[in-house]
Amino acid sequence: MKNIIFIFILSLISIGIYSQIKPNETLVFSGSYELKGLMTNIAQVTFRTESMKTSTKTYMHLSLEAATFSKWDTFFKIRDLYESYVEPNTLKPSLYKRKISEGGYNKTEKYTFSGNGTTINSSTIKGTKPEVKNTFKIGASSVDVVTLIYKIRTIDFSKLKTGQSMPFTVVFNQKEFPVTLKLMGIETVTAGNLGKKECYKLSIGAKTNALRGTDKNLIWLSTDSKRIPCLVKFSIPVGVGQLTLLKATGI
Q: Could you tell me the mean pLDDT of each successive run of 10 residues in the chain, 251 residues long?
């Protein structure tokens, strides 16, 4: 499942703000994986946004939760939660949290952004091991996992020509990854309760072993101002799968 999520992480370019992410939005996806030649639903992935106020500031709370359906828990149980707290207008991150439980492997991670967002103070706990703290530098345009997922929806893809690729950088597991995103064209796909949606078809490429094949890792984003992710197809070392939008509310 962390590889499914990584596909979303690799879907950002920096060519201008198009729309704003609003609070109280929920996107629910089915996570499917090819088992014995058949695409089988094994998990649910849910994205949520909400406004959160502190004594001095208002943040946008972005979250991503992934969980296998109960009948698959004995095979490989997944309970993952990713969270980011960002500036509502710029989506500049201040805090990132990650808590994963996958097949008996447990890990918690926290990034606190400082130095105008170019320094990360991290805290990591793996299983029952002691907490490990670290500080590392990132580029000015690099952001955390969840923030990247939402920033893709602020991009005006009409400025891209078919076949054009754009570079960007994502920070994940305390490392920065160079990634390219290529516009493949426009297609219409089924998008759950939204019906048929015209979408930008985008190919994701990265220098990482998490993805395999050329133009085999794809994401479809609606061409309207909401930029809703409607479908994702991915190819990873252990197989292929997809995320399909089931329900979108609050958009």
A: 47 40 94 84 95 92 96 92 93 94 94 92 95 94 85 85 84 85 94 97 75 73 93 79 95 89
Contact 178, 207 (CB under 8 A): yes
Q: How far is CA 128 from the centre of its chain?
A: 27
Spatial contact of 7 and 179, defined as CB atoms under 8 Å apart: no
The residue among 232, 239, 234 whose CA lies nearest residue 47 is 232
CATH number for the domain including 122? Answer: 2.40.360
Q: CA–CA separation, 151 vs 146, rounded Å? A: 9
Q: Is 81 exposed, middle or buried (0-12, 13-18, 19+ CB in 10 A)?
A: middle
In angstroms, the CA 37 to CA 84 distance is 36
Query: In degrees rounded to 5, what are phi and psi of residue 139?
Result: -70, 160
**What distance in Å separates the CA atoms of residue 186 and residue 184, rounded to the nearest whole number?**
7
Total number of domains in the chain: 1
Domain with 222, as residue range(s), is: 2-249
The answer to whether 210 touches 6, Cβ cutoff 8 Å, is yes
pTM for the whole structure: 0.86
Torsions phi, psi for 212 (to 5 deg):
-130, 145
Q: Which one, of 129, 47, 107, 42, lies nearest residue 77 by Cα? A: 42
